[in-house]
Amino acid sequence: MRTIETFQVPPRWILVRVSTDDGRAGWGECIIPKRARAVRAAVADIGDNLIGADARRIEDIWQRMHRDGFFRGGPVLMTAAAGIEQALWDLKARAADLPVYDFLGGAVRERVRTYAWIAGDQPDDALQHARQRVDQGFTAVKMNATAASDHLDRFATIDHLVGQVAAIREEFPDLGIALDFHGRVHRSVAKILLRELEPYRLMWVEEPTIAENEDVLPHLRDAAGAVPIATGERLMSRWQFTRILQEGTVDIIQPDVSLTGLFELEKIARMAEAYDVAVAPHCPNGPVSLAASLQVAYCCPNVVIQEQSGGIHYHQGYDGLPSGELFDYVTSGELIESRGGFFARRAEPGLGITVDDTAVRSADSSWRLPDPNWRHEDGRYAEW
Questions:
Q1: DSSP per-residue letters across 93-109
Q2: Which among 150, 155, 209 has a CA at the least distance from the CA of 182?
Q3: How many angstroms separate the Cα of 282 from the Cα of each of 88, 134, 182, 335?
Q4: Which of 29, 69, 153, 214 has the most crowded Cβ, counting Cβ within 10 A?
Q5: What domains can you pick out in the chain, each with its CATH number?
Q6: Distance of CA 367 to the CA centre of its chain
Q7: Over the chain, what is the mean pLDDT?
């Protein structure tokens, strides 16, 4: 490896470029945009130890990134390592003129189902937005369940959510509907919501509790009835997923390739297959993260659907930033645009996209996304 660079480009992407002495380059993507400066610094710190290493030895470099330091893990270090690792796979596969999935056992499918977000952080008018998504060809949608939620939420809040889901289900009997609790809903209210939502045949309820409260999952599993439970976007390794798989408390796991890395995502998916657990990779991220995640989806049979961020509400509302879209910084974005609610498998080498180096460099800046600062009516801080 010769250079490892990071770039912050609007609306909220953190891209990593790794180059080698022969002039080749590969791209990866980190997340945690609200801590972008910390992520860029972590990439620089890790990268200083990798310059001169053989970029083809990806597993050895992965082990080195994780084991070289006494303190390891955590989202900032893990996403920095994941961005570098994605770029190494892009380099390796491009040099061989093969897609990454051919290094991971080869393709098992011709297309991958995807879903689109509806509504926003404080969901309303979900039915109207669902109609728009169906018109765009999507067969599945996801929405946030609530805005800030308290331990003893008013039943009007619960009734409002259930009413929105009921209206979507009545108009679209076959539409896949997922609800993201986002770790906002406390145990006492989550149990009520799960029971109320059971008649509406949801694809899943996501993050019914935050990662540090996973001990609550067995109690929520009992309350959920036939509602599938999904979680895992904040988990970062096989070791963290092992516990919830062994406990049998979830039906779908949602690892994020920009936290786990590409090869680790593939390993997690293979491990989940042994527990008959489906994988729906988390990816409200940029084009490189999506392309990397799809490489795993093409070769792992238990990946059932892929998140993508086209038109997501996270792209808007930040002062001073343009409302960038998913393919603003790639010259071959059409290669991974969804058609009819699916991503068609492509055979282009590497991650399957071409990043516009000039556009990325010209857009690089030091923007900072503000924390949402959510509070309850009495002034207490609320889960975002």
A1: HHHTTSBGGGGGT--S-
A2: 209
A3: 21, 21, 12, 20
A4: 29
A5: 3-99 (3.30.390.10), 101-351 (3.20.20.120)
A6: 21
A7: 90
Q: Which residues have C-beta within 8 Å of that of residue 16, sequence separation ≥ 6? A: 4, 5, 6, 7, 27, 28, 29, 30, 43, 83, 84, 86, 87
Catalytic one of 66, 186, 219, 282: 282
SS3 375: strand
* 67 pLDDT more than 80: yes
Paired residues of 204 in beta bridges: 178
182 is an active site residue = yes
Q: Which of 66, 129, 160, 182 is catalytic?
A: 182
Instruction: Name residue 3's amino acid.
Output: T
Q: Which of 50, 58, 46 is nearest to 92 (CA)?
A: 58
Displacement of CA 282 from its chain's centroid (Å): 3
How would residue 382 be classed by pLDDT, with cut points 50, 70 and 90? confident
What's at 133, amino acid-wise? R
- Nearest 5°: CA angle at 366, between 361 and 368? 135
The rounded distance, in Å, linking the Cα atoms of 25 and 94 is 9
User: From the CB of residue 50, how many other CB atoms can be counted at a distance below 10 Å?
Assistant: 17
Give the type of residue at 74.
G
SS3 content of the chain, % helix, strand, coil (to 5): 40, 15, 40
CA–CA separation, 44 and 42 (whole Å): 5
* Gap between the Cα atoms of 254 and 182, Å rounded: 12
Counts for the chain of helices (H) and strands (E), in that order: 12, 12
219 is catalytic: no
Measured from the Cβ of residue 171, the count of other Cβ atoms closer than 10 Å reads 12
- The answer to whether residues 81 and 261 touch, using CB atoms and an 8 Å cutoff, is yes
218, burial (CB in 10 Å: exposed 0-12, middle 13-18, buried 19+): exposed
Nearest one of 297, 299, 218 to 255, comparing CA atoms: 297
Say what the pLDDT of residue 120 is: 64
